[in-house]
Amino acid sequence: MNWLINALTKLGLLDEDLDYHLIRASMVLLFLFFGYQKWFEYEAQVLIPYISNGPLISWMYPMFGIRGASWFLGVSEWSSAVLLFLGFWYKRLGILGALGSSSRSCRTGGPRLRAGFRPWRVTCRSS
């Protein structure tokens, strides 16, 4: 464990803002995992309602097909992860990665609301 702490200290990541660096590292890991999932058939099938009903991403199926659209999203998530990772040292690249990760919610959030998903209308049923 000491070798890890020494390595992070030499890189300058533990000098200050440890919480900031932990949040950034967790976002990098999440985007790497999410991007990795997009390379498999099951994930491409799960994304069909989101991509076909998304106002900003519905153009992907006619252009790339089902698997190609999934791969395109995977590459975009990996590029956001790389930009967020480079943001440890180059803040402007980190800002670009943050903008890319924020745009993801705008691209895929619309279909959930149009499909009838209303988080504020959750009802509990007693059995």
Summary?
The protein is mostly helical.
- Biggest pleated-sheet summary: none
What is the total tally of β strands? 0
Secondary-structure content class: mainly alpha
> What is the C-alpha radius of gyration, as a whole number of Å?
18 Å
Distance between the first and last residues' Cα: 49 Å
- What do the pLDDT scores average to? 81
Assign a percent range to the helix content.
over 70%
What sequence of helices (H) and strands (E) makes up the elements?
HHHHHH
What is the count of helical runs? 6
The amount of beta strand, in percent, is under 5%
Describe the structure.
It is a single chain. Residues 118-127 have low confidence and may be disordered. The protein has 6 helices and no strands. 73% of the residues lie in helices and 0% in strands. With 127 residues, it is mainly alpha-helical.
What tags apply to this protein structure?
0% strand, elongated, 127 residues, mainly alpha, disordered C terminus, 6 helices
Set down the secondary structure blueprint.
Elements: H1 2-11, H2 18-37, H3 41-46, H4 48-53, H5 60-86, H6 91-114
Helix pairs in contact: 2-5, 5-6
